[in-house]
Amino acid sequence: MTNVAPERAYICATCGTQFPPSISLPAACPICQDERQYVGPAGQTWTTLPQLRRTHRNMFQRVEPNLYGIGSAPQFAIGQRALLIRTPGGNVLWDCISLLDDATIDIITALGGVKAIAISHPHFYTTVLEWSRAFDAPVSLHAADREWMMRPDPAIQFWEGETQDLLPGMRLTRVGGHFAGSTVLIWDAGAEGRGVLMSGDMPQVVSDRRYVSFMRSYPNLIPLPPAEVARIAGVVAGLRFDRIYAGFWDAHVREDAQAAVQRSAARYAARSEGDAGHDPAR
Fold first, then answer.
1. Which of 19, 45, 56, 145 has the fewest CB atoms within 10 Å of its CB?
2. Is residue 279, in this structure, part of any structural domain at all?
3. 231 lies in some domain
């Protein structure tokens, strides 16, 4: 809608997704109405970026050399965390959070700015257009998830196929599963040169750091078919990495992460098919 103040770009308080500026509240958030997300018991609620700036602040954590986590306090939406990767060819913002304020812009600018933005899946789209405009950086999203982008813009670049080079030493790979376009980012120089896989929710790091999980919906506990999990594990098997950073604070597999993915897929298959060597009563 034209001639509407940009401050009226409403943000879904449940998932953090920003909608185009409008005079009235959006009728609903399609991302939250989807079975992979949810509308809370209190119903659909909304905020705006100016309101969020009054109630929240962003925190930065140095995760490893040239890698910084960025998240909001108190927790907002699903508690997602973004990652800023510094590379000789320019910095990459992987995934996104809703709050963008002057302090965040100043800190990231001091770290070298942002040359490219890539998002794993729609639960992390949040206010990505605001970030793109603040840093004059294009946004790479997989075309299979085009319908979930609530604020279409020329800065949003939809890529197709299975892999896409982002910057030197940085590649996107579509793994699917959680969403059709669910994507991981491989950072060759990460983990002291052993390689890092950055995911959003696919695969997801769980409490036992020897394993990961594969779900259609995490909040609603909807599993994926075993054949789909096997397919995802096959895609990941072709990637070089030794560490995983998922989309939340401390959701990390620090070493032997490729084996963790394959081990987890094998366990998933055994549970789904009925492992004869396991006593279900235990």
1. 45
2. no
3. yes
Task: Give tens-digit pLDDT for 4-59.
Answer: 677 899 999 999 999 999 999 999 999 999 999 999 898 999 999 999 999 999 99
CB 181 within 8 A of CB 143: yes
Identify whether the C-beta of residue 51 lies closer than 8 Å to the C-beta of residue 236. no
Place of tokens 């309101």: 51
Q: In what order do the strands lie in the sheet with 183-187?
A: 163-167, 170-174, 183-187, 196-198, 243-245, 252-253
Mean pLDDT of all residues belonging to the chain: 94
Domain-embedded: residue 190: yes
The rounded distance, in Å, linking the Cα atoms of 109 and 58 is 15
Q: Into how many domains does the chain fold?
A: 1
Residue 254's domain comprises 57-273
CATH of the domain at 79: 3.60.15.10
Cβ atoms of 215 and 222 closer than 8 Å: yes
Q: What is the dihedral of CA 180, 191, 57, 116, to 10 degrees?
A: -60
d(CA 152, CA 129) in angstroms, rounded, equals 9
Which of the 8 DSSP states describes residue 18? B
Whether residue 33 lies inside any domain: the answer is: no
